[in-house]
Design brief:
single chain; six-stranded mixed β-sheet; flat; 28 strands; alpha/beta; 2 helices; 506 residues
Length: 506
C-alpha cells in the first residue's frame, strides 16, 4: 500500500518542522490537519524543503501562534486534485511525454488515495462492528443481571411484606400487653388504697387510750393495749418499740399511735399525724411560716437550692458555709461572703450604664484611702464645683492675678533647693555659700530666687555648674548689709537652668 500521509503528535511548544515522505504532483495537493481541523497553508503553516525535481517529501513548519496543542494529532497527507486532467490534448497539438506521465501519475495518486481511504474506512467499520458486538454482549449481560435484580427485588418485597405483617402482629401484642399492664397498675392502686383504708380502719377500731406524753405510756401493758400519745417528743428514744419510721423525731405537734403485742413483748408502731395540720403544714395555696424554712446543704450553683419550678438554674444558692449567691442561668451574678462583703464576679450595669467593678480600682477609679474626703467635706474642707476652676491640661485665660508664696531655703554651706515645693524661693546668707544643684527639676519651670545679705553683709555666693548665665559668667552679689539680689531662673532641662541676675534691688 502506497504511503499517502504521515502523522505526528503535538507537544504544545514545537512548531516543527515536521518532515513528510510521500510523493506529490503539485504542492497544493499537500494538506495538513491538527486535531481533525484542516489548516490553511500560508496562514497556519508553511511548506519548505520541497524537492520539485523528484516531487517527493518536504517539511511543514507552523507559524507563530499556531503551535499544535500537547497531544494533538498532526496529519500531513496528499489529496491529488481530480477535478481536471493534469494535461489536456487538442487536435493537431504535440504530445509530450511529460504531459502523458503527469496524467498517468495523477490517476495513480488518486487511485492510491482512494484505496487508502477505503482501507481506512473498512478498518473503522470493522472496529465499529467489533465495538457493536461487544456492546451487544454487554447489553445482554446487563439484561440478565437486571432480570436477576428484578427477581431479587420481588423476593425482597415479599420478605418485607412478611416483616410488616409480623411487625403489625407484634404491635398488636404490645398494645394488648400495655393495656394489661395499665389494668394491673389500676388494680394495684386500688389494692393500695384499700390496704390504706383497711389499716386506717383497723387503727380506728383499736380502743386508744389518750396519754399526754411519752412518759405516760403504761409501764406494764397487756396484749392489745393501745395508746394515742398527743405529745410525741422523745418517742424516738422510747423502748421497746418496733416499726418506728427511719429518721422520725417526735414533736409536741405530732400525735403517735402504738399498741402492745405480748407475742413480741414490745410496743408496735401504727401511725403518726399532725395534731393540728393547719398550723403545722404549709398549704400549696400559700400561708405564713412561724418556724424556719430549711433547704438541703447542696453547694451547687448550677442548680441553686432555692429555685423556680420552670427555671431550676435561677435562684438563691449556698456555695459554702455562711455564704449566699444570686444565680441566673446557672451563673453566679452576686455573692455575699462570711464577712458580709458583696462581690460581683461579672460586669454589673444599671440600665445602659456600666458599673465599675474590682478590675477598675486603681485604673478608672482610685483605690480606697482613708484620707480621701467625703461628700460632707464639700464646701468646707474642699471647694465645691466651680465652672471657673482651672485645669492643668487645658489652655487657660486668667481674669485675676495668680501668685505663689515664697519658699524659705535653709542657710547652709551648700544651699539645697527642692523645685517641687514652689516657684519663688528666698534665703538670707549668714556666710559665704554655694547654691547647690536643685532637686526635682522639671523642664519648663520658672521663678525667682531672692538672695538677702544678713546684717553683717559681705557674703558671697558660688553656683553649681547646672546654673547658666549670660556670657557664661556668674554674677557677683551686692555685699552691702541687708542688700537684696534677685536670680530670675528658667529650667531648660535637668542639667541646664538659665539665670538672669538682678542686683541691688532697693
Amino acid at each position: 500500500m502506497a504511503t499517502t500521509q504521515n502523522t505526528f503528535t503535538g507537544d504544545g511548544s514545537n512548531l516543527g518542522p515536521f518532515s513528510f515522505t510521500f510523493k506529490w504532483l503539485e504542492s497544493t495537493d499537500i494538506k495538513v490537519t491538527v486535531a481533525g481541523v484542516l489548516k490553511t497553508a500560508g496562514t497556519h503553516y508553511n511548506l519548505q524543503s520541497l524537492n520539485y525535481a523528484t516531487k517527493t517529501g518536504g517539511q511543514v513548519l507552523f507559524t507563530a501562534g499556531n503551535t499544535p496543542a500537547n497531544g494533538a494529532a498532526i496529519v500531513v497527507y496528499r489529496q491529488t486534485d481530480d477535478t481536471d486532467l493534469a494535461a489536456t490534448f487538442y487536435s493537431g497539438s504535440a504530445i509530450r511525454a511529460q504531459d502523458l506521465n503527469n496524467n498517468f501519475i495523477q490517476g495513480l495518486y488518486v487511485t492510491q488515495e482512494s484505496s487508502n481511504n477505503a482501507a481506512s474506512a473498512t478498518s473503522t467499520a470493522n472496529s465499529a462492528l467489533t465495538a457493536s458486538a461487544s456492546a451487544t454482549a454487554t447489553a445482554n449481560a446487563a439484561t440478565s443481571t437486571a432480570n436477576s435484580a428484578v427477581s431479587t427485588a420481588n423476593s425482597a418485597v415479599s420478605t418485607a411484606n412478611s416483616a410488616v405483617s409480623t411487625a403489625n402482629s407484634a404491635v398488636s401484642t404490645a398494645n394488648a400487653a400495655s393495656a394489661s399492664a395499665a389494668s394491673a397498675v389500676a388494680t394495684a392502686n386500688t389494692a393500695n388504697t384499700n390496704a390504706t383504708a383497711a389499716l386506717n380502719a383497723a387503727a380506728e377500731a383499736l380502743a386508744y387510750v389518750i396519754v399526754a406524753n411519752v412518759a405516760a405510756i403504761p409501764a406494764s401493758p397487756v396484749n392489745g393495749d393501745a395508746v394515742r400519745v398527743t405529745d410525741s417528743t422523745g418517742i424516738q428514744s422510747f423502748t421497746p418499740l418496733s416499726g418506728l419510721p427511719v429518721g422520725f423525731t417526735g414533736d409536741s405537734g405530732l400525735t403517735v399511735e402504738i399498741y402492745y403485742s405480748s407475742s413480741t413483748s414490745t410496743w408496735v408502731w401504727v401511725r403518726y399525724y399532725a395534731t393540728d395540720s393547719d398550723s403545722r403544714y404549709l398549704k400549696t395555696t400559700g400561708g405564713t411560716l412561724t418556724g424556719q424554712l430549711k433547704a438541703d446543704d447542696s453547694t451547687s450553683t448550677a442548680l441553686p437550692v432555692y429555685s423556680f419550678d420552670g427555671d431550676v438554674n435561677t435562684g438563691l444558692a449556698h456555695p459554702g458555709a455562711d455564704e449566699l449567691a444570686l444565680v441566673t442561668g446557672g451563673t453566679v451574678r452576686l455573692t455575699v461572703d462570711p464577712s458580709g462583703a458583696v462581690n460581683v464576679p461579672v460586669s454589673l450595669s444599671v440600665g445602659a450604664n456600666a458599673v465599675l467593678d474590682a478590675g477598675d480600682i486603681g485604673v478608672s477609679v482610685q483605690a480606697y484611702n482613708a484620707n480621701i474626703l467625703t461628700s460632707s467635706a464639700i464646701g468646707s474642707t474642699v471647694q465645691a464645683y466651680d465652672a471657673d476652676t482651672a485645669k492643668t491640661d487645658v489652655a487657660q485665660t486668667f481674669t485675676a492675678a495668680q501668685r505663689g508664696a515664697y519658699v524659705t531655703l535653709t542657710d547652709a554651706a551648700t544651699i539645697a533647693t527642692d523645685l517641687s515645693l514652689g516657684n519663688q524661693f528666698q534665703v538670707t546668707l549668714g556666710g559665704n555659700r554655694t547654691l547647690g544643684a536643685p532637686t526635682n527639676v522639671v523642664a519648663g519651670q520658672s521663678g525667682v530666687i531672692r538672695v538677702v545679705q544678713d546684717g553683717s553683709g559681705g557674703r558671697t555666693l558660688a553656683f553649681n555648674s547646672v546654673f547658666k548665665f549670660p556670657g557664661g559668667t556668674a554674677p557677683t552679689l551686692t555685699t552691702t548689709a541687708n542688700a537684696v539680689d534677685l536670680l530670675a531662673y528658667h529650667v531648660e532641662s535637668t542639667t541646664r537652668i538659665a539665670v538672669r541676675f538682678i542686683g541691688d534691688v532697693k
